[in-house]
Amino acid sequence: MFPFGDETLYSHSMRLRTDIFVSAIVRRLFARGDFAAVERRGAEEAGAIFLRQRHRDGQETLYAPAPQSFFDDEQSGERLFEIRLGRADSEKIREMLSREAKFDPDLWIVELEADDLDGIVPLAEERKNPL
Hints:
Blueprint: H1 18-31, E1 35-40, E2 49-54, E3 60-65, E4 81-88, H2 90-103, E5 108-113
Parallel strand pairs: 2-5
Antiparallel strand pairs: 1-5, 2-3, 3-4
Protein backbone atom coordinates (compact mmCIF):
# COMPACT_ATOMS: atom_id res chain seq x y z
CA MET A 1 0.00 0.00 0.00
CA PHE A 2 1.24 3.47 -0.87
CA PRO A 3 1.42 5.94 2.03
CA PHE A 4 -0.42 8.69 0.18
CA GLY A 5 -2.98 6.47 -1.51
CA ASP A 6 -1.84 7.37 -5.02
CA GLU A 7 0.43 4.80 -6.60
CA THR A 8 0.90 6.96 -9.71
CA LEU A 9 3.25 9.15 -7.67
CA TYR A 10 5.66 6.25 -7.61
CA SER A 11 5.21 4.87 -11.11
CA HIS A 12 7.49 7.36 -12.89
CA SER A 13 11.23 7.57 -12.43
CA MET A 14 12.64 10.94 -11.46
CA ARG A 15 14.94 12.80 -13.80
CA LEU A 16 18.45 13.45 -12.58
CA ARG A 17 19.14 17.15 -11.95
CA THR A 18 20.84 18.85 -14.88
CA ASP A 19 23.90 19.97 -12.93
CA ILE A 20 24.53 16.41 -11.70
CA PHE A 21 24.02 14.95 -15.20
CA VAL A 22 26.49 17.45 -16.70
CA SER A 23 29.00 16.78 -13.93
CA ALA A 24 28.79 13.05 -14.65
CA ILE A 25 29.46 13.56 -18.37
CA VAL A 26 32.46 15.78 -17.63
CA ARG A 27 33.90 13.27 -15.13
CA ARG A 28 33.41 10.32 -17.48
CA LEU A 29 35.22 12.10 -20.29
CA PHE A 30 38.12 13.12 -18.04
CA ALA A 31 38.35 9.54 -16.76
CA ARG A 32 38.82 8.37 -20.38
CA GLY A 33 41.56 10.95 -20.97
CA ASP A 34 39.33 13.25 -23.03
CA PHE A 35 38.33 16.85 -22.26
CA ALA A 36 35.03 18.54 -21.41
CA ALA A 37 34.09 22.00 -20.20
CA VAL A 38 30.87 23.76 -19.32
CA GLU A 39 30.59 26.66 -21.75
CA ARG A 40 27.28 27.93 -20.35
CA ARG A 41 25.52 27.08 -17.10
CA GLY A 42 21.75 27.03 -17.17
CA ALA A 43 19.09 26.08 -14.68
CA GLU A 44 20.60 23.61 -12.21
CA GLU A 45 17.52 21.46 -11.77
CA ALA A 46 15.95 21.21 -15.21
CA GLY A 47 17.85 23.14 -17.88
CA ALA A 48 18.07 21.72 -21.40
CA ILE A 49 21.52 20.40 -22.30
CA PHE A 50 23.29 20.97 -25.62
CA LEU A 51 26.54 19.10 -26.23
CA ARG A 52 29.11 20.55 -28.59
CA GLN A 53 31.57 17.89 -29.77
CA ARG A 54 34.75 19.28 -31.29
CA HIS A 55 36.54 17.08 -33.81
CA ARG A 56 40.25 17.15 -34.61
CA ASP A 57 39.60 18.50 -38.10
CA GLY A 58 37.94 21.66 -36.71
CA GLN A 59 34.40 20.47 -37.44
CA GLU A 60 31.79 20.14 -34.68
CA THR A 61 28.74 18.02 -33.97
CA LEU A 62 25.86 19.47 -31.96
CA TYR A 63 23.77 17.17 -29.78
CA ALA A 64 20.42 18.57 -28.62
CA PRO A 65 17.69 17.19 -26.36
CA ALA A 66 15.60 14.63 -28.23
CA PRO A 67 11.96 15.46 -29.02
CA GLN A 68 9.38 14.29 -26.49
CA SER A 69 8.05 11.73 -28.99
CA PHE A 70 11.05 9.51 -28.13
CA PHE A 71 9.93 9.17 -24.52
CA ASP A 72 7.35 6.89 -23.04
CA ASP A 73 6.05 6.61 -19.48
CA GLU A 74 8.60 4.00 -18.45
CA GLN A 75 11.57 6.06 -19.68
CA SER A 76 10.42 9.48 -18.43
CA GLY A 77 13.51 10.01 -16.27
CA GLU A 78 15.97 9.30 -19.07
CA ARG A 79 17.77 12.04 -21.01
CA LEU A 80 18.15 11.33 -24.71
CA PHE A 81 19.91 13.39 -27.35
CA GLU A 82 19.74 13.73 -31.10
CA ILE A 83 22.33 15.01 -33.52
CA ARG A 84 21.07 18.45 -34.52
CA LEU A 85 24.07 19.34 -36.72
CA GLY A 86 26.66 16.75 -37.71
CA ARG A 87 30.23 17.71 -38.56
CA ALA A 88 29.45 21.35 -39.26
CA ASP A 89 31.53 24.52 -39.13
CA SER A 90 31.84 26.02 -35.67
CA GLU A 91 30.11 29.22 -36.87
CA LYS A 92 26.94 27.26 -37.78
CA ILE A 93 26.98 25.60 -34.35
CA ARG A 94 27.48 28.97 -32.64
CA GLU A 95 24.57 30.52 -34.59
CA MET A 96 22.23 27.67 -33.71
CA LEU A 97 23.19 27.81 -30.04
CA SER A 98 22.67 31.56 -30.00
CA ARG A 99 19.13 31.12 -31.36
CA GLU A 100 18.42 28.37 -28.82
CA ALA A 101 19.69 30.56 -25.95
CA LYS A 102 17.34 33.38 -26.99
CA PHE A 103 14.45 30.92 -26.88
CA ASP A 104 15.57 29.19 -23.65
CA PRO A 105 17.89 31.23 -21.39
CA ASP A 106 18.13 28.30 -18.94
CA LEU A 107 19.96 25.96 -21.33
CA TRP A 108 23.37 24.43 -20.72
CA ILE A 109 26.15 24.18 -23.31
CA VAL A 110 28.85 21.60 -22.70
CA GLU A 111 31.92 21.40 -24.91
CA LEU A 112 33.33 17.93 -25.49
CA GLU A 113 36.69 17.10 -27.04
CA ALA A 114 36.57 13.39 -27.75
CA ASP A 115 36.75 11.31 -30.90
CA ASP A 116 34.17 8.82 -29.67
CA LEU A 117 31.14 9.51 -27.46
CA ASP A 118 29.81 5.93 -27.33
CA GLY A 119 28.51 5.20 -23.86
CA ILE A 120 28.63 8.89 -22.92
CA VAL A 121 25.79 10.46 -24.91
CA PRO A 122 22.55 8.43 -25.02
CA LEU A 123 21.12 8.92 -28.52
CA ALA A 124 17.42 8.76 -29.31
CA GLU A 125 18.06 7.12 -32.68
CA GLU A 126 19.34 4.08 -30.80
CA ARG A 127 15.84 3.64 -29.32
CA LYS A 128 12.78 2.86 -31.39
CA ASN A 129 10.33 5.77 -31.56
CA PRO A 130 7.19 4.61 -29.69
CA LEU A 131 4.86 6.44 -32.12
